[in-house]
Amino acid sequence: MTITICTWNINSVRLREPIVLKLLREEQPDILCLQECKSPVEKIPTENFMALGYEHMIARGQKGYNGVAILSRIPMEDAGHRDFCQKGDARHVAGRLNNGFVVHNFYVPAGGDVADREVNEKFGHKLDFLAEMKEWFSTAKPEKSVLVGDLNIAPREDDVWDHKKLLKVVSHTPVEVKQLAETQLAGGWVDVTRQDITEGKLFTWWSYRARDWDLADKGRRLDHIWATSDISSKAHSSRVFRIARGWEKPSDHAPLFASFDI
Fold first, then answer.
1. Quick one: pLDDT at residue 179?
2. Which residues pair with 40 in a beta bridge?
């Protein structure tokens, strides 16, 4: 059985419902994981998603902030969530298929503009969030699992448009990259995207500030799909659906896909 998963920071699921529906109709992933839904769960527009066959939704929501949701056309049960840093933020949710395959959907804090936790509380929150993820994966080793989401870090030099210029910019600083690597190692996670697309510039996010985001192409790979080592060899067909960044009223993120033979 092949399962295709898509992850997308949608930047308001209600505002951008039309392009979510467009993606579901045209690309038909089996599972769509959304971040930054910015909606209470009860106000997520599920009716039109269900009409396209996505009858299962597992979500955690907040009014105007954060929020994560998993839409699936395969039966899926709620596998819980964790409240990282005890802030009550809706930044994690998990779903489990009947065969035991678990999908974790994460929205890691962006971290603000200054890469110094002494003067920027948001940056400290980001580092603490990653540290808690690391501790969790160290004590409860995940198996037969996929972790997706907006992790808000571009780890490799070719995950950003200019490595040297972004070394002091939040999302690509050495301290963040190191923390993400340790978190990944703690869970034995494999970066499926870079397993498939081993070399070359690869981005999933382009700033709204660019007059012509496509021409400038000053992007970063902030969105990720990881798999535990027991199933990472079953992953394939990774791709960034870049065209969606140019749709009407787009998110500043593009959807990221991977498929798994499980």
1. 98
2. none
Taking the CA atoms of 88, 91, 94 and 95 in sequence, report the sign of the dihedral they define. Answer: positive
Q: Please give the structure tokens belonging to residue 70.
A: 């998993």
So what's the pLDDT on residue 22?
A: 98
In this structure, what DSSP letter does residue 157 have?
G
154 vs 156: CA distance, rounded Å: 6
Give residue 105's region: left, alpha or beta (phi > 0; psi -120 to 50). Answer: beta
The residue segments making up the domain with residue 87 are 2-261
> Domain tally for the chain?
1
Q: Identify the CATH number of the domain in which residue 189 sits.
A: 3.60.10.10
Span 30-39, pLDDT tens digits: 999 999 999 9
Looking at residue 69, what DSSP letter applies? E
Q: How far apart are CA 28 and CA 40, in angstroms?
A: 25
User: Which ranges in the chain belong to alpha helices (H)?
Assistant: 17-27, 46-51, 121-139, 174-187, 192-196, 213-216
Q: How far lies 244's CA from each of 22, 24, 148, 240, in Å?
A: 9, 12, 18, 9
